[in-house]
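User: Some background: our group keeps a shared notebook of sequences we're curious about, and every so often someone picks one and asks for a predicted structure to add to the entry. Today it's my turn. The entry only has the sequence so far, pasted here. Could you supply the structure so I can complete it?
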Amino acid sequence: MSLPLGFLDELRNRVSISSVVGHKVVWDMRKSNQAKGDYWAPCPFHQEKTASFHVDDRKGFYYCFGCHAKGDALKFLRETENLSFMEAVEVLAREAGMTVPARDPRAAEKADRLGELAQVMEAAGRFFRGQLATSAAGQARDYLDGRGLARETQERFEIGFAPPARRALWEHLTSAGVSPDKIIEAGLAIAPEDGSAPFDRFRGRIMFPIRDARGRLIAFGGRAMDPNAPAKYLNSPETPLFDKGRSLYNAGPARSAAGKQPLIVAEGYMDVIALVAAGFEAAVAPLGTAITEDQLRMIWRLSREPVIALDGDAAGLRAGYKLIDLALPHLGPEQALRFCLLPGGMDPDDLLRASGSGAMRKLIEGALPLAQLLWQRETEGQVFDSPERRAALDMRLRTALGRITDTGLRSHYAEELRNLRAAFFRPAQRTGAKFRPRFAPPTQPLPATRATRLAATEHPGIAEHMREEIILAILLNHPALLPEFEADLERAEMTSPPHEVLREALLSADPEAPNRPEAVHLLDLSHIRIAPPVRPDADPELARNCLREEFAKLFTRRGAALELREASEDLAYLADEGLTWRLRQAAEMRNLAERSRLSDSTDLGEDRAALAGQLDKLIESQVWVKPKK
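Assistant: Of course. Here's the predicted structure to add to the notebook entry:
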């Protein structure tokens, strides 16, 4: 909605930011200067003991020197109360005694009509609450008591009762002067197509008022007391006030609490009521259907990482699996989901009554990320005893990854699923009661050491051979780095058949690569076992830096050697400026290799001096030799 020019400026001028912020903080009067409009307080956005949160009334802004939160009065309301922009404007306008302008006469007329319907719903809510105390509601009161709902909780959620009489609400509202067409338009009564008298939609049911995020009563949900009723739960129909797919039960109160607690998305009214009564006040529920795309957006506006509480039965798990497909295209760094899997056959209300809030809190804290539930969906109850079945799994995972539109997040999901796949197809080995790391070094070290190997081997390619070993060993023990260095690995053909076998296995994401005899032998080499970046528990950043360095050295050395070889061949036939340039390029590559050094722990000790001397000798003594005739 667009606002008239200057409206926001007038609004900010009428309400000081300190009066808005002052509702949420306690000012440090030793540090504040009220006369200058200069205020300080502990920050409401992060935990601290000192007053680093500054409010400047003259400029109309706040700033925290600790967490760097900043903004004006509207942003403060949006952040602390979980309000939309227009909702914050309305709150500030009420405080300033101003009226938010309507967009146009038609919009104002529609708003008036909605306001009238909301008043009819409020009247119906008062009637239902009063009926809960009558003799006709004895069974309903017993049911609520049996579910452990204290009177205070019943009043907080405005629970009522619709008497079984066919026209009780209709007669109550019409006698109070409410227009019949408004009762029908609000969804409270049904007008038969045959023209007979309208009758109440809700009869013989416990009534749960449904309010929108602004607090307006927009619909009801009713639970039947008659076990033979066609529908156990019945919601209001779609009305100008109520769109079931765009509404959440308890959205308003949960919004205020979501900044302090995890937002829990449960299945129904009773789950939300039980959660709130147990102290989990940031709880909402869809209204009798699976979560819709619009409801998912609403949920993310309340919390960046809500917890979906899945009932502990097959239907609950199916609902979670379905939600994965709905959420994947909309996931992002600020929009995630976690899933709380309840014990078999239980919903949150059951668990709280059976085990208390501590058990529920533990499950919420251990909620699974969406990636793990996706992996569970694709692997649960299946056998992957053939290449075709494993390939089918890979195809399903690639399809799911392709639905994630955020490229950065898609990359992280690919890495997470790759790790889950590796763990799934490579079960840990047991040693007694403990798990032994997969690549645990042997208890008896080999007699060879890196130094003695280099010293004892006369083969000119030993340094390059050992560099290949370092690269392959790091990727075997740190598979999460493979996507980042996949292009380098494709380019780096190995000099020995065993190394080439391992390179191909890594490139094909073979889960059995670390179990191959070539890998077992490689990881058993003494200079591999003592290299810090290779160890499975090494800092990933150290391993990443080592890989960058070793690939750079490998390609630089090979490039320089190739150039030197070709130049040596050409020197026998001609010497010109083109050859001079090529030799200079080889020298530059040599210099790059000289500058590219790691610590002693990763330096393979190649003979850089010999390479440099060979190039210098060619450049100094051969470049001007005349070509042979």
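Suggested note for the entry: The chain has five domains: 7-96, 104-242, 244-378, 379-427, 450-620. Confidence is low (pLDDT under 50) at residues 428-452, 570-577, 596-608, 622-629.
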